[in-house]
Amino acid sequence: MLSPPYVLLLLDGWEGSCRVYDRAKSYKVIFTSSTYEEAELWLLEDEYELIERRVSVSEI
Questions:
Q1: How far apart are CA 29 and CA 25, in angstroms?
Q2: Whole-prediction pTM value?
Q3: Long-range contacts of the stretch 8-11 (C-beta < 8 A, 24+)
Q4: What does the alpha-carbon distance between residue 34 and residue 21 come to, in Å, rounded to a whole number?
Q5: Distance between CA atoms of 16 and 54, rounded to whole angstroms?
Q6: 39 CB burial (10 A radius; 0-12, 13-18, 19+)
Q7: How far is the C-alpha of 16 from the C-alpha of 51, rounded, in Å?
Q8: Span 9-55, pLDDT tens digits
Q9: What single string gives the DSSP state of each residue in 2-53?
Q10: Among 9, 27, 36, 58, which is 20 to 30 Å from 43 by CA?
C-alpha cells in the first residue's frame, strides 16, 4: 500500500451526475458519469479500491 495513499473522491452530485476528483491535482474532476455505478466501475477497472468510511475535511 502506498504511504500516503493516493486518494480519489467519488461524489454523487445533486444534478444527477457523479464526479471523480483527484486530490493530488487540486481536486480537478478527472471523470464524470451519469450514474454512481458507472463511476464505480471506472475506478475498479483502474484497480482502485473502495474505502468505506467517513472522512472529515481535515483528513483530506
A1: 9
A2: 0.70
A3: 8/43, 8/48, 9/60, 10/36, 10/39, 10/40, 10/43
A4: 15
A5: 22
A6: buried
A7: 23
A8: 888 877 778 999 998 899 999 999 998 889 888 988 877 777 776 66
A9: -SSPP-EEEEE-TTS-EEEEEGGGTTEEEEEESSHHHHHHHHHHTT-----S
A10: 58
Residue showing cell 486518494: 7
- For residue 18, which phi and psi values (nearest 5 degrees)? -115, 145
- Residue 29 C-alpha cell reads as 474532476
For cell 474505502, name the residue. 51
Which pLDDT belongs to residue 47? 75
Owner of C-alpha cell 471523470: 31
Report d(CA 24, CA 7) in Å as an integer: 8
